[in-house]
Request: fold
Amino acid sequence: MSRYTACFEKLRARGEKAFIPFFVIGDPDYEQSLEVVRAALKAGADMLELGIAYSDPIADGPSIQAADVRALQAGSTVAACLRFIREVRSFSDVPIGLLVYYNLVLQRGIDRFCREAAAAGLDGILAADVPVEEAGPLVRGCLAAGVDPIFMVTPTVTEGRLEGILKHARGFLYMVALLGVTGARGDLHPDVLRLLRRVRNRTDLPLCAGFGISRPEHVRTLTRGGADGAIVGSAIVDIVARNLANRKKMVRDVAAYVQEMKAETRP
Reply:
């Protein structure tokens, strides 16, 4: 049984949904990033979504772009990110997903990247800029290495594309809660609840919503509206950015935010 399956089953047995924070590995630097992730797990995060910093993150808005710049300036590399995942795995057994841009995978070699990711303890890979029609080599690499290929589903997905995604997806589906790039928003787009209902009728895979989620009421609305989990990135990255001059407060504030958001996933 995969870590994803085991975690979702455990949560369902308790009547809970998953809270999944996203962090850019190495933001603001390797050691501080590790402390922030450790604090989020202690505060109740059920899973992790981690990103490898990239120079041209086309799916990301200003907050995560800035986090990528900070991590790259601090010396983040693919090798360092894989080492980071191994360190997290040494103290936590939660499912860990990786959001990556495909050029980083191609430069390392698809099969090598997937093997090294699996050896580090990774559970899933989502390549944000790879359409399902071109994802065959990555899917094969993931499955050969024992890593789940994760796919995004957007509000504008066609039936044909959705069918292709459902054919290849494992672990969970990343339901995109808005049109556009990542970034904290004040309100949820109403299309996301319709999307959750539409996709739930087609698959038993867990549905986790991300993009634009920043407030406890967002998590409450989504998890009561059919999502099996909520993924929050930019709002957490913004906490890191606000506390660059006070790193102890950074850790405390991230932990407090995770605690507050996780509370909304419980019955």
Remarks:
- The two ends are 26 Å apart (CA to CA).
- The first helix runs from residue 3 to 13.
- The mean pLDDT is 94.
- The CA atoms of residues 148 and 225 lie 25 Å apart.
